[in-house]
Amino acid sequence: MGVAVCRVRPGDASVLKEVRLAALLDTPSAFGSTYAEEVTRTDEHWLHRALLASAGRDSTVFLAWMDGRAVGIVGGYRPDPATDAVELVSMWTAPEARRAGVGALLVRAVIDWATENDSSSISLWVTRGNAPAEALYESLGFRAMGAYKPLPSDPCKDELRMSLHLSEG
Question: How many CB atoms lie within 10 A of CB 32?
Fold first, then answer.
């Protein structure tokens, strides 16, 4: 069972929407957005999102493919294009693809993209208590920064800040 991780293409808008909505339904506590917010977005929104993520140094989205089906997603972006810091966001793998290395391949794709674009670090927020996600990030060199904030989609939960300095990764 081979897995391919590819940067989203402009023509992948419908797949991007499908995978993103599946992620929000499957693990709503892992994201800052909600299914209810994103399901109402127009086809033009998804096309624009795919187009922006398909090229350039300011944002990206990668999809993981297994047996011709998208089974994972991850994004990366520069919150401030004037800096070299990247945020890793929207990480998700479908239940049937978990524990098969898909998550590591997705995160590595963002690490490679950030490195190719001269970034010095990648940071992320992970829902506190999501031990599998924390372990995945730690195995790839991310370290807890000791910062916490409420999860935007559910303020009763909080997120832990993790970071990877690329010269160390």
Answer: 14
Strand partners, 154: 151
The answer to whether 59 touches 21, Cβ cutoff 8 Å, is no
**How far is residue 42's CA from residue 21's CA, in Å, rounded to a whole number?**
13
How far is it, in rounded angstroms, from Cα 21 to Cα 36? 9
Structure confidence at residue 151 (pLDDT): 81
Do residues 106 and 122 touch, judged by C-beta distance below 8 A?
A: no
- Indicate the DSSP class of residue 29: G
3-class state of residue 80 by DSSP: coil
User: Taking a C-beta distance cutoff of 8 angstroms, is the pair 111, 91 a contact?
Assistant: no
Q: Where are the beta strands (DSSP E) in 9-168?
A: 59-66, 69-77, 85-93, 121-127, 143-151, 154-165
* Residue 4, helix vs strand vs coil: strand
What is the value of pTM for the model shown?
0.93
Alpha helices by DSSP H, 54-130: 102-116
Residue 78: both structure tokens together: 């520069």
Amino acid letter, residue 163: S
What's the whole-number average pLDDT of the chain? Answer: 93
For 39-50, give one letter per residue: b (16+ CB within 10 A) or e: eeeeeeebbebb
**CA 21 to CA 160: how far, in whole Å?**
23
